[in-house]
């Protein structure tokens, strides 16, 4: 590579590196790397704040095409010899890019032909601008933070990992343990496939594997803890105010303390499986669709959800059954059949009627804006009296526009917030078809509907029979419209 050596010394005693030393360093670097120095260009008594193109000596080597063609790289002792101004440095970078040149700093050791070199260049350019100390302390802080949490600090090693000597420095770091990491992978995989945690735990115990706590028996909860924590991803959670918090770096990304044992995909699948397994419990606690809507026709007590535990279907059972003074003997009503009955009765009654919807219309109060306008008009009128004819005319235009707005607001006045009824264009049947029992239940309750039901037990004289009475408010349609 043909290089152009460049040296600069400013008038002030800011630097102690003489032109001669700069030259020697560049020559030594060229020799060591097998490059030929075409010329050494020294700018003496020239400040680093002057644009490189405007420098007495360097300028022509950048602007004269013939001269610019005679070398491939500009080599300086330090980047701040080329420029101390960030924007000028960026200019130089652009210029070098456009002309296929490279910039080299001998002491900072960067080379623009590599991406890393470009990054260094950008950083050093900022430093040359005078932010050296700020940059240094910022870098130091984040480095220490990473060191502190990224390195294993002793204490218990997360299951699946082992502590080894840090190959790049002091202390120890964590790496996946060849034996236990495969157990972690197995656990995640089996949980992700939907295998009950208890079954996984029992199997691990049977195989005589030692638990993360160094004990013999694995448990379902310990499996859950392992699967829901982020340790197997090589990340760190720490307890803060009783909550587990994932530690993040300055970019908001999780801090990576070690290589992950499981992929993020597998981690997610296993955690979804854990959540799914918890769901049936929630379903059992759900309210029945007709709760507080259905009553026993025999004793008027409300019916409650009741499940015999053998099938997924449930029943509505009279609460009088459990109340000692009543001890109602009515038969539990199968939920599915009752739901169908209620649906039929309701839709027979109002199915074809159009459904209207109550909408909230917020109020409007322009008092404040009107006061504002009135004050503006008063101020402008005062200004008008001292103004020349042209100025007065311009002010008048503004006043007129304010007057117009004021008049418009005055006609609106103050409107209170209220409800309006809006046609939805659908019938109650259409609404019923697209809604869930949760929504239907709310509407039926608000409309004041109640259902009285009795199921006659079949005997040898007659088959079982339903008595279902939909108790509708006097004017159901009106009630529904008032919802
Ligand atoms: Zn009853």
What does this entry show, briefly?
This protein is of the alpha/beta class.
What labels describe this entry?
single chain, 483 residues, alpha/beta, Rossmann fold, Hect, E3 ligase catalytic domain fold, 4 domains, 5-stranded mixed beta sheet, 3-stranded mixed beta sheet, 16 helices, binds zinc ion
The level 1 CATH classification of the largest domain is Alpha Beta
Question: Uncertain regions: pLDDT < 50 for 5+ in a row?
Answer: 131-149, 281-285
Structural class estimated from helices and strands = alpha/beta
Question: How many helical stretches?
Answer: 16
Mean pLDDT across every amino acid position:
79
* CATH H-level homologous superfamily name of the largest domain: Resolvase, N-terminal catalytic domain
Helix proportion of residues, in percent? 40-55%
